[in-house]
Amino acid sequence: MSLKGIRSWHPIRALDSWWLRVTPKRRLDRSPANLCTLIGLMCPTLAIVLVGPVPNSALSEMPEYLQIWMCAFIFFGCATKFYGAMAGSKYFRPKMSVKQCYTYGFIGAPLASSGLFVYGYFILAFTPNFVAALSGILTPMLGLGIGLQALLYFLEYRRIDHAEEVLIDQAKAALGENDSDSMG
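and the corresponding structure tokens:
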């Protein structure tokens, strides 16, 4: 890079240039918040499945078997979504289509969301006061966010499906025109 190039380089312009290059390839499931949330939910829920719930917690009213099952739901739902988010990348299952990846996203979401909603119910139902309930709202909101994101995956799946149908129809029409040209 020349001295003039160094002076004209600016981190914001470089970031803008990078974003313009990668935006058409961006996927809904690969946002940093989504990936961090999935990993952040998978780790503690796996610990509870393997070791059991903490004996002295706000969830003392929730039966132990139910805590373990809900953690299993959350873990397997998030793991399914994480698998879909990582698949189709350069290093993991590179030939998997985006539609297939999004399918994993909306298959795993009901499991994770249902586990989080049950946990949220027990946290909020057995919270002693309003201020403590404010901290308990995170769990059901995570469940809602995962469910709403699954809806976006579903809509994007349908958009891709529709775009593929249009391209197929256009290709068939072009082939049909070529066939009639060769006959005449």
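(Above: one complete record from the training split.) The chain has a mean pLDDT of 84.
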